[in-house]
Each structure stands twice: as structure tokens, then as C-alpha cells.
Amino acid sequence: MAAEGGGKEMNEIKTQFTTREGLYKLLSHSEYSRPNRVPFNSQGSNPVRVSFVNVNDQSGNGDRLCFNVGRELYFYIYKGVRKAADLSKPIDKRIYKGTQPTCHDFNHLTATAESVSLLVGFSAGQVQLIDPIKKETSKLFNEERLIDKSRVTCVKWVPGSESLFLVAHSSGNMYLYNVEHTCGTTAPHYQLLKQGESFAVHTCKSKSTRNPLLKWTVGEGALNEFAFSPDGKFLACVSQDGFLRVFNFDSVELHGTMKSYFGGLLCVCWSPDGKYIVTGGEDDLVTVWSFVDCRVIARGHGHKSWVSVVAFDPYTTSVEESDPMEFSGSDEDFQDLHFGRDRANSTQSRLSKRNSTDSRPVSVTYRFGSVGQDTQLCLWDLTEDILFPHQPLSRARTHTNVMNATSPPAGSGGTNPGSNGNSITTPGNSVPPPLPRSNSLPHSAVSNTGSKSSVMDGAIASGVSKFATLSLHDRKERHHEKDHKRNHSMGHISSKSSDKLNLVTKTKTDPAKTLGTPLCPRMEDVPLLEPLICKKIAHERLTVLIFLEDCIVTACQEGFICTWARPGKV
User: Fold this and answer.
1) What is the 3-state secondary structure (H, E, C) of 132-143?
2) pLDDT given at position 61
3) Would the pTM of this model clear 0.85, i.e. be above it?
4) Which GO cellular component terms, listed alphabetically, does the Swiss-Prot or TrEMBL entry include (predicted)?
5) pLDDT digits (tens, 9 = 90+) for 311-352
6) What CATH number should be reported for the domain holding residue 370?
7) 172, 215, 430, 519: which one has the fewest Cβ atoms less than 10 Å from its Cβ?
């Protein structure tokens, strides 16, 4: 399904693709890059990243775009699908010596047409606070590299704060800073605040308040990315040791963990309602994890190499009640646009209504996307049959090929191993009826059902999600293993930590011990998603995927930022 045609067509770069919403089109005039449009020779340089902010200026053209290419950092007016990009006039351009920008983030709370606060992390460990509109550099943090000497992997403003920001490093440490405080002239002294399984949090000991306020040590090897939940209360971190760890940010408690199939996890994002987390990494898979149940509920296989970015599309994530409403609101982490809180909250409440009992006939489909080092963009739909195996199956579609080599024993109700039984259940679905022979039931399977039929449908759904297509699945498995023989032993090598650390890692998290446990269920124990579309859209590895209201933005390591108009938005 992912590959269309053979031979030459396989390597052709796509400029458009079609999904059920319609045609997405690449707008060549809306491509952003360095002013000379020359492809960047990306060997050995840090990934190109893109950040957006809306400054709400009166002209109605308030979007601003920042991206890094090699040693350079650019800041442009983003005209999106409306007008051609004018590359001759960047608002700000900076070239750095001796260090490269690696990541950046705008503060949406403080952004105005006259001033924006942009944090930039660097390969040598420093963090700079700049205002590209006023063209001033206000502060440099970790300037002497006394706090951390390793590369900055991720930097984000703490949601709802004008002054706090969090910085992750390839050392596996995260630091909480306040822009108002200095970093001190000596290395910080720390005092243990809290310790848990494979993490520790320290406070900074000093007479006067100084940065960093907190130091988090998480897992083994590099901490590759973190993302705050939409409500700002939880923090999801993915590390080179292959673990997703989700923390309550304020109480510094570990909420739950998950382990990759193998290799490091590279990227993470939250669903717009905070109920699901998607990760991607060196196992070429996207993995969907339920925040409530703390377990893997699906994996997606479509990429042929490492997955570099995952992001939810809040504009195509649909919540359909008796009168269908399109869901739109603030995306979590990858999308750096600022919308009114009330809009985001109303859509979250619509999504949460999906789980309340008073309004049963509601159907939910989450759309998310992923891009990878295989230069491919994949789009995925997370549908009812995967999300609620016990509940009415209202929107199963053929592209969610649930390939499972096991069907649940009668009486199990279809709970996955390790779900510790607390997934959402409807009464009376303990014995599944005979399996239907298709996992694409009609759309109106439960449009106006009463409670009686929903019990029945719940049981059917639990059967469907376990419907066995054994031979196909086994073949896929073997092919997948073969693809990766050469990478198998490299899981820990790519984290540049010392060999000592790696010895510790091996004793702590032997992959053979986690496989088949709730931390990392076997492939046949969870539904396997097929991508809606899987298209080669670049010559170089892809490093950016952002969903905006009228377009999708992607970027590759050559330094080209592409705008894909949504259906009907050209």
C-alpha cells in the first residue's frame, strides 16, 4: 500500500498527494530557504529545524518563521499559501562561529509585532535569547559551558510562562532556567530533590537564586526530545536508551514509561487532547501510547529508515457529534502557533466528551503524521477500532489494517497484555461473538444506537481488533528483521556516552527482558497501523513536520522549507 508503482516511479519526488479530505499540493512559490536557494551541503551538520510564531499584526500577515541551516539562522515573514516567499529580505539573519544552532522556540505569550523572544540552543551547549525583530541579543545562558558542555537537543518555553524555559542536552540532562536569573561564574552545586527509577532531579544550591533552577537526569545516553502536554502539566521525554518517560512536571513524579522495539527514540508528540502520545525512532516505527492506560495501543509501520519527527494534525482530527464539527485548536509541541486558550479548551472538552456516557454517538479519528530519514512523509489515522476495542465501532476503515497473529480468548474482552485491565470497558462484553470477516464495517455501524446494541458492538470491536491475518503479518515481520540486521547492534553506539555508561545500560535495560512485557509488547500483540499515504517528498532526510490551519510544512536537510496547501486552500 505504501509503495505505488515500481522502478523509476519509486524514486520520483511527489509534489501532491490525495487523502479522503482531498488533494494536498506542494506550493513551489512558497518555498523558504537561504536567500540564494542553493541546497545546503548537510554532511555532519545539525538537523534543520523550523519554529513558527504569530505576532498578531494588523495586516493579517502575522506569521513569522525561524529556521537554522548549518551555522546560519534566518527569520522571515511567513506568507504561507497566500503569497510567494520573498527570500531577498529576511527580517534577521545570523551566522555563528565555532558553534551551530540546533533548535529554537518562540514565546507565544509575549510575542508582539514589535518584539518576540526566541530561544536558540547550540551544538556546544549554550542557549541564546534573542529578539529577531529588534535585532538584539539579550542574554546568553551556559555561556562558559559550566552547566553542560554537550549539544542542546531540545529547548522549549514552559507553557504559560513568560520567563521559564527547559533545555535538554545530549548528556541526558535537562535544565530549568529563568530568563531573569544569571548562570553564575562557577559550576553549580546540586542538592538531590527527588530520585526514581532511572531519573533524578536536583536543585541548585547557592546563596542567591541562580540558573539552573533544576537539573533533571533522565535515562541513559542522549535525551533526544521532550514535549509538554497540551495543558502543560506533564512532560514526555524520549531518550537514546529507547525509553519514553512521562513525568508530572510540577510534582516531578514519573507517570509512566514505554520502551522502543529496538534502538533509540528520536521524537515525541501529544494528541491535542493529551490522551495519547506518539513516538518515533530507530526501529522505523511510530508507536501510539495511551496516557490513561500507560500502555502501547498501536504501532505503525511505513518508514524504511529512522523516524525523525511525529506530529498530530489538530485540524483533521475530527470529533463528530450529531452535527459534525471539524476539530481545530492548538497543536501540542511541534506546532509553535499560538491560538486562543478558549478554542483549544472547547475542542478538548469535545474530545473528552467522547469518553463520557451521556453522548454515546460520537466518533473520533485522530490524524497524525511522521517524516523520516527515508525522505518519506507518512500520514496516519488513529480510529475507533484501535482506540476503543471494547466500544462501538463507528468508523473502522480499511487502511487501519489491524494485523494480529492472536485473537483473544473468550472472556478476555480483548484487552492487550499489560493493559492491567483498566482500559475503558462497557458492561457485558466478556464473550466476543464470532469474528466478522472484515475490519472495514460500514460507516454508520453505530450512528444512532441504543445501549443494547452498543454492548454488542463493543464485543465485535474487541474481536475485530484482534482479527488474525497471520501469514501476511509473519512475512512483514521477517522482512522487517532482515532490513535491520546491520543496525541491530548499533542501538547504544550512536549515543556518544562513554563505554562505562553503556555497560550500565546493558545490565539495566536488556532489550530481551523488556520485549513481551507491557513496556514493549511483541509486534503481534498490538494492532499494526498502515499509513494512509507514504510519499517520497525530498532528496535529503526530512527533519520538520508542522501542521498549520491551511497547510502542512515540511523541511529537509538541504535547507528547503516546503508548504503543502491543504485541499481547497490554494
Assistant:
1) CCCCEEEEEECC
2) 78
3) no
4) cytoplasm; nucleus
5) 999 999 876 653 434 444 433 333 333 333 333 444 455 555
6) 2.130.10.10
7) 430
Nearest CA to 456 out of 383, 388, 393 is that of 393
Helices (H), 320-371: 341-353
Cα-to-chain-centroid distance, residue 166: 17
Element at 483 (helix H, strand E) = helix 470-483
251 confidence band (pLDDT: 50, 70, 90): very high
547: amino acid identity, one letter: F
Neighbours of 191 (CB within 10 A): 9
Q: Which helix (H) or strand (E) holds 8?
A: helix 8-11
238 touches 226 (CB < 8 A): yes
Into how many domains does the chain fold?
1
pLDDT tens across 174-187, in order? Answer: 999 999 999 989 99
Contact between 219 and 172 (Cβ < 8 Å): yes
Does any domain span residue 102? no
Report the SS3 class of residue 431: coil
In this structure, is residue 237 part of a structural domain? yes
Sheet of 50-54, strand order: 50-54, 63-69, 72-77, 92-95
Residue 60 in any domain: the answer is no
Q: Which three cell numbers stand for residue 311?
A: 506530529
Residue 255 structural domain:
227-319+363-389+515-536
- Within a domain: 408: no
